[in-house]
Inverse folding.
C-alpha cells in the first residue's frame, strides 16, 4: 500500500475539509429541502462517470476536488457512495472488483474513485492513512471504511451491511429518463421547518420543530431535528459563553453534536459530570439527556452514554 503525502494543506484543501465537515447532517432532515433545491443537477455526472445505469445516472464515477461535493456529498443523499482512494502508481484489483459489483448492483450504490496523486486534498480531508482505502458515504457523511485489499465475499458482506444501514433513509436513485418522481405527501408544517433549517434561520427552525414535536409526540425524527437545531443555534449564538468546566463542556458538546461526533459530545459531558456537583452537575446532566435525543433510544452510543452517566452519578 502507498501512503498519501503528509505535506501541509493548501487553502483549497482546507476549504475541502471544511466542506466535508459542514456536510454532516445529524438529523437527515435538511436532505428533502436540499434535494428539492438541487433536483435539476443532483442526478447528473460531469462527464466523468463510467457506464450509466438505466435513466442515465452512473454507477461509477471518477472524482476530483472540484466534483467531490456534487458526486459524493450530494449524490449520497440518493444512494450510498462507495468512495475508493486509489493511486495510479499502485493499482490494485480492488478497483475492478468494486466496479463489477457496482454494475451488478444496478444503481443501489455508486462506486466513486479518487486518484490521491491528482486530488490529494480529498485524502487529507478524510485523514486517510493509506491507499487503497474505501469509505461508505451516505447523507453527506462517512459511515464506515476499511483499508487494503479485501476478498470478494468480504466486500459483498460489507456492502450488504451498508445497504441495510441506509435502507429507507435516502431518497433513492434518480428516476429514469422520461420519468418523474412521485410527489411526497404534503406536509406544509414540516416543509416550513425544514426550509428554515436549510436557509440557516435557526431560530425559526427551532420554533417550528418545537411546535411539531409538541403536536406529534412519538415521531422521533422531529425530536432528532429539534436537538440538532438547538445545538446549532447555541453554537452560532455562543449561548454558553464563559469560562470554567460547565460552559466549556456545554459548548464543546454542542459543537461536537453539530459536527456529527456523537461519542465525543456524550463522553465530554459525562466527563464533566464526574468532576462537578450540585447545580453544575445538574446542568450538565440535563444537557446530556437532551442531546441523547439526537439518536434513537436503542442506538448503542446512547445506551453506552447512559451507562457511563449512571456510573458518573453513582
Amino acid at each position: 500500500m502507498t501512503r498519501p503525502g503528509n505535506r501541509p494543506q493548501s487553502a483549497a484543501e482546507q476549504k475541502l475539509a471544511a466542506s466535508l465537515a459542514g456536510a454532516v447532517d445529524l438529523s437527515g432532515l435538511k436532505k428533502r429541502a436540499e434535494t428539492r433545491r438541487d433536483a435539476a443537477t443532483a442526478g447528473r455526472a460531469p462527464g466523468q462517470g463510467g457506464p450509466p445505469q438505466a435513466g442515465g445516472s452512473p454507477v461509477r464515477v471518477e472524482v476530483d476536488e472540484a466534483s467531490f461535493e456534487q458526486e459524493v456529498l450530494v449524490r449520497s443523499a440518493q444512494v450510498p457512495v462507495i468512495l475508493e482512494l486509489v493511486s495510479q502508481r499502485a493499482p490494485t484489483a480492488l478497483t475492478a472488483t468494486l466496479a463489477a459489483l457496482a454494475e451488478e448492483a444496478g444503481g443501489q450504490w455508486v462506486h466513486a474513485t479518487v486518484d490521491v496523486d491528482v486530488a490529494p486534498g480529498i485524502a487529507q480531508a478524510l485523514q486517510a492513512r493509506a491507499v487503497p482505502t474505501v469509505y461508505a458515504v451516505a447523507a453527506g457523511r462517512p459511515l464506515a471504511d476499511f483499508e487494503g485489499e479485501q476478498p470478494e465475499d468480504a466486500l459483498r458482506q460489507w456492502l450488504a451491511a451498508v445497504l441495510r444501514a441506509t435502507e429507507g433513509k435516502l431518497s433513492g436513485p434518480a428516476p429514469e429518463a422520461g420519468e418523474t418522481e412521485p410527489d411526497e405527501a404534503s406536509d406544509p408544517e414540516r416543509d416550513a421547518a425544514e426550509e428554515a433549517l436549510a436557509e440557516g434561520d435557526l431560530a425559526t427552525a427551532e420554533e417550528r420543530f418545537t411546535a411539531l414535536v409538541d403536536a406529534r409526540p412519538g415521531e422521533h425524527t422531529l425530536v432528532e431535528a429539534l436537538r440538532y437545531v438547538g445545538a446549532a443555534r447555541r453554537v452560532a449564538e455562543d449561548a454558553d459563553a464563559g469560562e470554567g468546566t460547565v460552559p466549556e463542556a456545554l459548548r464543546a458538546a454542542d459543537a461536537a453534536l453539530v459536527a456529527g461526533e456523537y461519542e465525543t459530545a456524550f463522553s465530554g459531558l459525562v466527563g464533566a459530570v464526574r468532576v462537578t456537583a450540585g447545580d453544575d452537575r445538574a446542568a450538565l446532566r440535563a444537557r446530556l439527556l437532551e442531546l441523547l435525543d439526537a439518536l434513537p433510544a436503542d442506538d448503542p452510543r446512547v445506551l453506552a452514554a447512559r451507562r457511563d452517566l449512571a456510573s458518573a452519578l453513582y
Q: What stands out?
A: Residues 1-37, 39-56 have pLDDT under 50 and may be disordered. The chain has two domains: 11-166, 188-313. The radius of gyration is 21 Å. Residues 11-166 form a domain with the Glutaredoxin fold (CATH 3.40.30.10).
